[in-house]
Amino acid sequence: MDAMEQSIFVHDEPKSSSSKRLQDKVAVITGGARGIGAATAKVFAGDGAHVVIADILDDLGTELANSIGGLYIHCDVAKEADVESAVKLALAWKGKLDIMFNNAGIGGFGGSITAMDMEQLKQLLSINLHGMVHGVKHAARAMIGGHIKGSIICTTSSAAIMGGLAAHAYSLSKAAVIGLVRTTACELGAHRIRVNCISPHGVPSEMLVAAYRHLMGNADLSIEEISKIIGERGSLLHGRAGRVEDIANAALFLASEEAGFITGHNLVVDGGYTSATTNLSLMYN
């Protein structure tokens, strides 16, 4: 083995399994006070990251931040200045930003396209789309300025890639995020900044639970009951619904160097729902 082969071999040698994947990385998570964001904050912190939780749920966010040794900041992602402040807090705290998880979002309103309320649409887009643009913009500025080979992640939805899963307004807002991720990955790749997104399906977060209760006209449905419904109807893994931890672990992968050659990608976490039908499986059971 010559010197070059030896250097390549040593460079590619796997790290110890005991090492933390996000050791001393600095992350900002919008919508981090509960649901997918809170689960991700816990997973990131457990793997060595310093986490800034940005949300409008001040009590929940502060309590969670204190429990993981992080910081909390009030942040309405529809306001660019709020998102910029969250990024600046990370810079003031640790001097850098390695990871931006643009996770904050709201559910859509229903109804026919023929009766679309454009003011309601503008409000939804101000959070679900403009909020994502704010996050990518200010994270990119911080990472480029600090010469950080960072990771920017956005939460989208299975409704962005498959029609009929959600209301028109919500679906179009999430589809636009995939476009945002792909185009910004092209620009930011020159700075070794990776931009990816995650499309969850059927994860009974607080937002989805509220939507199911409204859809089914039953405010007393428990999370367990909703998970059972999702597991039976919305997954190839019969009886297995998604969990917020599934999305948190996907975000951990995309944030880490294990995903160092992945950018411009939409990671769909859906139990196979959007890829295939469960009908054929009935022939074998």
Automatic annotation (TrEMBL):
Keywords, in A-Z order: Oxidoreductase
Cross-referenced Pfam families: adh_short_C2
TM stretches of this protein: none
GO function terms (MF aspect): oxidoreductase activity
Xref: InterPro entries: NAD(P)-bd_dom_sf, SDR_fam
Protein family: Belongs to the short-chain dehydrogenases/reductases (SDR) family.
Protein name, UniProt field: Uncharacterized protein
Protein species of origin: Rubroshorea leprosula
Taxonomic classification: Eukaryota, Viridiplantae, Streptophyta, Embryophyta, Tracheophyta
